[in-house]
Each structure stands twice: as structure tokens, then as C-alpha cells.
């Protein structure tokens, strides 16, 4: 019989370090939204090229958000959530939605409710699934998160109606809406208003160069969406604790706050990012693929649920 290790006890990032990283992330987003259009573009449009390296910082921005979602950013829970909400406003989607969605991911990963690339060949075809799959892969995931802002004005019964209409045993959407509406609707609405206000002001600041900000946000959508399922693509089904550890050079691993050690994170979700490397080495220190190979191979597209590569390979004598 397989057993699931509870793993190391919950750990937390050092408050000073975490606060400094959050400050850097918010400064970079502030530079993208206001410093570049108000302070630099008037001196020359070539300053707009600075948006490209800022787009590349969206991965560590999400990594910090991820730490706060798991309560591992700082020890104080209220402070942890406040920092998470600030980061989420900068990211462009309410913290309540991101937290509920990510925790559902941990619960249902690789089950019928959360198999991004999987389709049942008895019910549909590769061609029918491919358009939606590629849309999600190349930006649609982030755009769906942002589009949740449209739900903010709905009364609670409107959320309940939407959850009923979207109930599907092959997605977590209805569960996500029910979770937010039941426990975090006020928080969602306040953060949604802040996101809309901040980004409306930013587009106004860019004036005739508004397209630069739009391009930067579309770049964020691409980076976030491509990275999202790379750690799970073509991994065994019905194994929520399974995910891949992907190789990156150590400087890049540090840059993204060890998010590439995703297999270890799924086994020990309470670990702060700085402790993942030690847990990875204790677990054998084996990488499944390089990060780049994992990201690129998603372009192969949807996978039928009957594919042999989706069957878990278990050690001899393991009765599963």
C-alpha cells in the first residue's frame, strides 16, 4: 500500500527577505505602470524597450504570490495575506480568486477536474480540443484570470447562478466560483476595484503609447500561461501529488524562487521557497527534464486519456 509522507513541517521565508522581494516586485510593476510613461517616454519612445525585461520578471512576481497563497511568505498570516493582495493587484487578478484556484489545483491536479491537456477520445477529437488548448497555452490562462474582474458587480445570487451553469465534472470552475462567493466576495470586489483603478490610471498615463502597456500585459499573459502547466504536461493521471522538477541553472532557479522544483512543492506544499532545494536534494536530487524542454513540448498539443505515457510507473510490489 502506498503511503503519503507528511514531509517537513511548515516553514516561512525570512520576513526581511520576503518584504524586500515584495518591495522590489512592486517597484518593478510601478515602473512599468507609471515611471516609464510619465518619467521616461517623454524623453524618447526608445525607453519603451525597458518593458521587455520587466515582462520577464512576471515569473518571480507569480512565485511571490504563490508563497503568499500557501501562507509561506511571512509568518504573520494577516501580513502574509496583505502582501499577497498587494502583489495580486500588481499582477492584475484578485488574490481571493488566485488563492482559491491554486488550492483547488493542489487538490484536483491530474484528476478529471484538472487535466489541462487531456481529452477523452471516446467523446471528442484532437482537432476539436486543440483551439482551446492552444489559446490557453499562449495567454488564455492569464486572460481568464483577468476576465474574472467582470464578475465583481454581480450579487451573490449571480455568482451562484454562474456556478450552477458552469458545473462540469471536468473543470474546477464552478467550485472556484462557489468558494470565492461563499468566503471571499468582499475581498474580491475591493481588490477588483483597485486593479481596475490602477490599470485605468496606467493606460491614461501612457496616453498615445497605450499600446506599449497592452503589449507588456499580453507578454505577461504569454509568460504566465506557458509556464503554468509545463510541470504537469503528460504526467501520470490521478496522481495529485505528482509534478516534475525541472532543471534550470542555479541563478535562474533563484530568480524564480525555486518554482522549478515543482515536484517537491507538490509533495511538501508548506515549505517556503528557500527550503525547496534542501528537500529536493534529500529526495534524491533528480530532475525530470530541463525547464525549456518542458515548456516547448507542450506545443505537441492535447493528449488522449488512453495514451500509455499517462499510466503511472510504480515500483515492483507496490499495489497502488
Amino acid at each position: 500500500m502506498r503511503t503519503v509522507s507528511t514531509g517537513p513541517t511548515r516553514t516561512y521565508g525570512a520576513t526581511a527577505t520576503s518584504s524586500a522581494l515584495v518591495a522590489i516586485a512592486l517597484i518593478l510593476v510601478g515602473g512599468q505602470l507609471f515611471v516609464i510613461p510619465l518619467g521616461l517616454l517623454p524623453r524618447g519612445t526608445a525607453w519603451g524597450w525597458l518593458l521587455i525585461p520587466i515582462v520577464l520578471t512576471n515569473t518571480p512576481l507569480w512565485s511571490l504570490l504563490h508563497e503568499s497563497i500557501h501562507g509561506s511568505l511571512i509568518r504573520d498570516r494577516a501580513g502574509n495575506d496583505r502582501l499577497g493582495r498587494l502583489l495580486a493587484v500588481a499582477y492584475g487578478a484578485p488574490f481571493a480568486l488566485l488563492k482559491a484556484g491554486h488550492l483547488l489545483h493542489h487538490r484536483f491536479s491530474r484528476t478529471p477536474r484538472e487535466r489541462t491537456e487531456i481529452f477523452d477520445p471516446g467523446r471528442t477529437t484532437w482537432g476539436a480540443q486543440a483551439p482551446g488548448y492552444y489559446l490557453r497555452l499562449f495567454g488564455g490562462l492569464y486572460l481568464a484570470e483577468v476576465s474574472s474582474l467582470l464578475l465583481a458587480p454581480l450579487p451573490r445570487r449571480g455568482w451562484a447562478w454562474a456556478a450552477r451553469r458552469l458545473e462540469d465534472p471536468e473543470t474546477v470552475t464552478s467550485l472556484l466560483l462557489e468558494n470565492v462567493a461563499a468566503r471571499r466576495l468582499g475581498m474580491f470586489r475591493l481588490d477588483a476595484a483597485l486593479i481596475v483603478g490602477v490599470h485605468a490610471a496606467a493606460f491614461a498615463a501612457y496616453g498615445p503609447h497605450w499600446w506599449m502597456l497592452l503589449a507588456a500585459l499580453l507578454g505577461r499573459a504569454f509568460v504566465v500561461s506557458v509556464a503554468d502547466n509545463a510541470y504537469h504536461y503528460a504526467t501520470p493521471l490521478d496522481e495529485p501529488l505528482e509534478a516534475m522538477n525541472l532543471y534550470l541553472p542555479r541563478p535562474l532557479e533563484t530568480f524564480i524562487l525555486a518554482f522549478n522544483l515543482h515536484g517537491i512543492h507538490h509533495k511538501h506544499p508548506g515549505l517556503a521557497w528557500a527550503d525547496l532545494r534542501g528537500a529536493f536534494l534529500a529526495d534524491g536530487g533528480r530532475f525530470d527534464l530541463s525547464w525549456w524542454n518542458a515548456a516547448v513540448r507542450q506545443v505537441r498539443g492535447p493528449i488522449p486519456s488512453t495514451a500509455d505515457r499517462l499510466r503511472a510507473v510504480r515500483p515492483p510490489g507496490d499495489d497502488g
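The CA atoms of residues 94 and 190 lie 9 Å apart. The first helix runs from residue 15 to 40.
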